[in-house]
């Protein structure tokens, strides 16, 4: 990113003071379509979509070179079951039943991939009906399970990906997924993990997306404060159950064709349908543009846990720790791990600013390579956003009540190092 674009882009930001950014509303539900690969830069995406938190669709030209686009699809645009079975037949995969509601999602089970493909073929043959219901292969960590497979290349626009950078570093998890499902399979109403961004590329098939900007979901809650399972259900018209539904805006609707990539902004609730037999590749990701939203989400989640078990506060000596444990079981992260998340991201960028990039690191698919592609100014931007959130975390009363002696370096030392690295880089 050049200095002029960087300066213009950062001017869009408001200072975070522990509260979420204001809701963003699209005029008349318009979603931009990005067609030309050669003329659309990372700076364009950063300025026009990441910062204003605005969805967009990339044309099929952005995925033309992917191995999965060539080999996972038959000549007539259908899933290439034979090829997929040859490559992944012995894998175990997570499969959801779209016909069953379990709390506010669909129940999942683990199935052999070859059994799922057999089911899918039979489902199509029987006119998209089965006594087993409509089964949808979701959240399959294919890249982690088959790292040797050259399936796709993450577009540069999504390469500033702190979420996967951190979980790769601790070798615990990742947020890169493959979805496969028949016509009629769908995902209920939700916002993505940690209020992350997401991008979703159709390898084949078509999807319909219903999107609601941040804040609109409040109008869709029932009188108990619960979000709906299905935003298209007739029951939402019952004002005695959903008293504010008539104040909600219509959703932003996207029909995504084969090869296209949809960018879903941070905190946008959505519901998704497969209009045909469809395969997609999805990433969830966080970076300097939305890490403050992630921090606000965690504060809201902890506050909800604290309200839920408030009656146990006095008799329970470790009440604050128990709240953290419950929050982690629900969200996947607690305050101390969030600190470690910020630390890993910060230290990677400090290392580059202080030591530069070696040729080997910049040539590989690593965080250093991504930072090298985006430039040193982007590393400084990342550190500035980390400083703001880390300062807020360090001052947070719930964080200070935890045993922080295991954190290395201590928050104050990390903050000092961060600020010094920024000052040195800007000299």
UniProtKB/TrEMBL annotation:
UniProt key word Metal-binding: yes
Gene3D superfamilies the record matches: Cupin
Superkingdom to which the source organism belongs: Eukaryota
Protein name (record): 2-oxoglutarate and iron-dependent oxygenase JMJD4
Gene Ontology biological process: positive regulation of translational termination
Catalytic activity line of the entry: L-lysyl-[protein] + 2-oxoglutarate + O2 = 4-hydroxy-L-lysyl-[protein] + succinate + CO2
GO annotation, cellular component aspect: cytoplasm; nucleus
GO molecular function, one term: catalytic activity, acting on a protein
Pfam family, one: Cupin_8
Taxonomic classification: Eukaryota, Metazoa, Chordata, Craniata, Vertebrata
Protein keywords: Iron, Metal-binding, Oxidoreductase
Family: Belongs to the JMJD6 family.
Required co-factors: Fe(2+)
InterPro entries membership: Cupin_8 (IPR041667), JmjC_dom (IPR003347), JMJD6_ArgDemeth/LysHydrox (IPR050910)
Domain JmjC: 143-302
């Amino acid at each position: 990113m050049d200095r002029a674009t960087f300066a213009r882009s950062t001017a869009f930001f408001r200072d975070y003071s522990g509260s979420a950014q204001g809701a963003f509303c699209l005029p008349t539900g318009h979603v931009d379509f990005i067609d030309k690969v050669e003329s659309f830069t990372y700076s364009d995406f950063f300025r026009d979509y990441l910062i204003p938190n605005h969805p967009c669709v990339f044309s099929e030209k952005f995925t033309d070179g992917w191995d999965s686009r060539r080999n996972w699809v038959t000549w007539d645009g259908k899933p290439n079951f034979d090829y997929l079975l040859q490559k992944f037949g012995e894998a175990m995969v997570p499969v959801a039943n779209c016909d069953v509601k379990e709390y506010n999602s669909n129940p999942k089970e683990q199935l052999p991939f070859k059994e799922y493909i057999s089911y899918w073929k039979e489902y199509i043959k029987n006119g998209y009906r089965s006594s087993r219901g409509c089964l949808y292969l979701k959240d399959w960590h294919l890249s982690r399970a088959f790292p040797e497979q050259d399936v796709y290349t993450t577009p540069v626009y999504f390469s500033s990906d702190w979420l996967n950078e951190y979980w790769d570093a601790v070798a615990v998890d990742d947020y890169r997924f493959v979805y496969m499902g028949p016509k009629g399979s769908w995902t209920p109403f939700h916002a993505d993990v940690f209020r992350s961004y997401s991008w979703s590329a159709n390898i084949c098939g078509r999807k319909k997306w219903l999107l609601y900007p941040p804040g609109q979901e409040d109008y869709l809650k029932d009188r108990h404060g619960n979000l709906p399972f299905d935003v298209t259900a007739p029951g939402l018209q019952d004002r005695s159950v959903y008293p504010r539904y008539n104040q909600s805006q219509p959703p932003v609707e996207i029909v995504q064709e084969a090869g296209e990539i949809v960018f879903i902004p941070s905190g946008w609730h959505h519901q998704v349908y497969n209009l045909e037999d469809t395969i997609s590749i999805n990433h969830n990701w966080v970076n300097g543009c939305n890490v403050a939203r992630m921090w606000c989400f965690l504060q809201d989640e902890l506050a909800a846990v604290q309200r839920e078990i408030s009656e146990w506060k006095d008799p329970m000596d470790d009440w604050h720790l128990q709240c953290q444990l419950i929050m982690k079981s629900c969200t996947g992260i607690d305050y101390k791990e969030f600190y470690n998340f910020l630390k890993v991201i910060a230290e990677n960028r400090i290392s580059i600013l202080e030591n530069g990039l070696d040729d080997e690191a910049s040539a590989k698919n690593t965080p250093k390579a991504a930072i090298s592609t985006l430039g040193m100014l982007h590393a400084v931007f990342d550190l500035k956003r980390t400083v703001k959130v880390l300062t807020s975390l360090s001052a947070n009363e719930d964080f200070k009540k935890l045993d922080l002696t295991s954190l290395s370096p201590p928050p104050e030392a990390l903050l000092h190092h961060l600020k010094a690295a920024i000052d040195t880089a800007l000299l």
